[in-house]
Design brief:
The strands form two sheets. A three-stranded antiparallel beta sheet has the order 2-3-4, with no helix packed on it. The chain has about 100 residues and is an alpha+beta fold. It has two helices and five strands; from the N terminus they run αββββαβ. The chain has a domain of about 70 residues: Phosphorylase Kinase, domain 1, CATH 3.30.200.20. A hairpin with a 3-residue loop joins strand 2 and strand 3. Helix 1 packs across helix 2. The mean pLDDT is about 75.
Length: about 100
């Protein structure tokens, strides 16, 4: 992705969710089905959810997966902030599962 992702300038819950859905639809983010992951192991947790490591399909490399306790406005807002941070500042691969 060559464009800089900008976060929505709103406190509206639907606007944050719409931002994520649009980013996936425009292929700024990739979406993968959970069923394609194997060897899922919990490696941590925090205020928003749990972090797991897993293999995707038959690849040997591990990926980090996140699950969220409650997908509310605050959680979606933090997801958006994290996506923007990783895509704009670190040029890292970031995908939605």
């Amino acid at each position: 992705m060559s464009e800089i992702i900008e976060k929505p300038d709103t406190e509206n819950t639907n606007e944050w969710i719409n931002w994520l859905e649009e980013a996936i639809a425009k292929e700024y983010l990739k979406y993968y089905e959970y069923k394609n992951f194997s060897n899922v192991q919990e490696i941590g947790s925090g205020g928003f959810g749990k972090v797991y490591r897993a293999n995707w399909k038959n690849f040997e490399n591990y990926l980090a997966l996140k699950s969220f306790f409650n997908l509310n406005n605050a959680t979606v807002k933090e997801i958006v902030r994290e996506v923007i941070y990783f895509k704009n500042d670190n040029n890292m691969i970031f995908t939605i599962f």
